[in-house]
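Predict structure. Input: 43 kDa receptor-associated protein of the synapse, 401 residues.
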Amino acid sequence: MGQDQTKQQIEKGLHLYQSNQTEKALRVWMRVLEKSADPAGRFRVLGCLITAHAEMGRYKDMLKFAVVQIDTARELEDPDFLTESYLNLARSNEKLCEFQKTISYCKTCLNMQGTTVSLQLNGQVSLSMGNAFLGLSIFQKALECFEKALRYAHNNDDKMLECRVCCSLGNFYAQIKDYEKALFFPCKAAELVNDYGKGWSLKYRAMSQYHMAVAYRKLGRLADAMDCCEESMKIALQHGDRPLQALCLLCFADIHRSRKDVQTAFPRYDSSMSIMTEIGNRLGLIQVLLGVTKCWMIQKELGKALESIEKAQELAEGLGNKLGLLKLHCLCERIYRTKGQQRELRDHVVKFHECVEEMELYCGMCGESIGEKNNQLQALPCSHFFHLKCLQTNGTRGCPN
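Output follows.
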């Protein structure tokens, strides 16, 4: 298969993919991969396969194609291709929750400076790196990366990247419990979709609606949360987007739990868990198990709650997700206080404070912890963040750290 034929077949696959005929598109692209003698064409078709498998949640296949793409880039001896393939390798590892590997591949990308394409890709590299730092609960570095990605998006007038960064910032602020910002950023993403997203994939709309749903639930606006989550789920089902379906099911379950409707929440958690397990989203599994634990606690089934905690703890330790561990120690503390088991209670109180120290989750001004309850926060240019009220009271000109 020559260069022109390769190009035609890639376009044919893209057309099928955009009309939701994913399996047919994959067959066309696989045929190109087997028969094409054009290395640049093969590189491009591998990019299509990586994107398609990412959206379907087939992350192990995504990783497999990313490794092949690196070999193809080396064969082409083109630094632009090499940067792009390392970014795909980083993103594959990010999806599989291999966060240290993600950071390492992102650094490799950033060291390959000097070409126009790699400069345009730096925003995506910073976003992937930020997501990995967030997975490891290294909040200051995550925020630094997201703000860097946002600067690249503004400088290159890249609205799609800006939309994705806004969703990640929504997730960031939801985790450290500044729920106003957790809502502001996905609302900004939804605005970008409305203003610029006519030709974009619907996944951008679905993504912003999902993050809005999470923030609305945290703010106790459950009807708004349900509306946004339903819209996101509808698009996820239309497009066979398994990762987003799993997240929406988790959000539905959390909404029902917030309404104390445990019987409706449990089957949603089960469905989410089975997709998260199938695609390998271990970070998502921790969230599911946290929700399940809280349901058992509502039902006063403390033994079952501890079983869920044990499974979640194993995952959180394996991933290095410190925030997950902190939340689990907090739940254990409540359970052992109820059971009157003082030794276990003290053990988890100590571990809880160790996690807070390790993540530096406290305000550098008042010394109180951050992320314990909904609080307005403000980041300074150095990416240290503080209670907004503390900054206003002290009127500081620079970072006290």
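Residues 116-135 form the longest helix (20 residues).
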